Amino acid sequence: MPSGKFSVVSYNILGVDNAIQHSRELYWHIPSFIMDWSYRKKRILLELGLWSADVICLQEVDRFDELQSDLVQQGYEGVYKGRTGGSNDGCAIFWRNKKFSLLQEESIEFQDLDLRHNIAQLCVLQIKQEQGTVGDKRPKGTTKEKLVVICNIHVLFNPNRGDIKLGQVRHLLEKAHALSLEWGGIPVILAGDFNSVPHSPLYRFLKDGMLDVRNYDRRAISGQVERSLRVKQTRVGRWSSTSQFQIQNGGIIHEETSVISQDFSQITEGSCTFEWTSEELVKATGAASTAIIKHNLNLQSAYSSVQGSEETRDSNNEPLVTTYHGNFMGTVDYIWFTEDLIPLRVLEVLPIPVLQKTRGLPSKKWGSDHLALACEFGFSI
């Protein structure tokens, strides 16, 4: 039986500056009062209160002080890491202070690795009711303490730079693995907006632990289709495409919706090869001499591991939709976990017909253009 149960939420809350910057491109059809931060913040905080998670991983946070002020009153502590460069948003991790103690905090500034201005966070948390001596680093198996590494990331969006996306994820996994070993081989949870669709090469890398990048065009690593479809509401309330799109690599449009997912399951490894420059290989794999990228964490997707409804899941049990705006409807957000953790239940995402009834996200009820993901875990030992 699992012990030490705790819940984790991952939520891209749509940064205020990003919402303004992309208003004409992505949110032209959303009423201005819904896009207003004061309105969205109330909806987001209400939603977080409903889920009442023990750990909250947020992306696109550019009003941290405001969120922290409210969440502290609800019993949370939190840490924030802003993106480098000219952007004002970043990532934040909050934890319920009656449940967890923070033992160690780390972050990654990817600009230091020549991998753009994105960032990642890592926190070692310990369940308080299980704790013995706080902060004691002991070999695995010598204590009943329940510790976990929580990782939070917002991967680069640019669909053309799969090399940079892989590099960012690779560095986070390396850091998470090292931190896990430092604390005695403790489990890892990886949450965030990965800007990649299910079963894309980047998804495969996370799941399988290895990828030969020569089998893929770097522009197809994340499976994203930039500006794939623009949707409009017809007179009868259905959503239809205003442009034609040639879908490649097994991509599919789900019936009368604007959902696009890239299905890479039919691609045979080694069936074709692509040229990568030395610079691209260095960014992706860490060395110009190899096209193989690896990681040492045995990762599983929380949602894929918990059976869901056909209305909300794809053929491999991942959510059909975690984000919905004027140019895209699909899945890019995930919660991953390693062995010694058991996913007990997840928060189901909204069915496509429900989303179709809105004018897109954000909406009167939902404060972001992403949907929150949540999973309750238990320790297996």
UniProtKB/TrEMBL annotation:
GO terms for molecular function: 3'-5'-RNA exonuclease activity. This is Endonuclease/exonuclease/phosphatase domain-containing protein. Residues 10-370 form the Endonuclease/exonuclease/phosphatase domain. Gene3D superfamilies: Endonuclease/exonuclease/phosphatase. Signal peptide: none annotated.
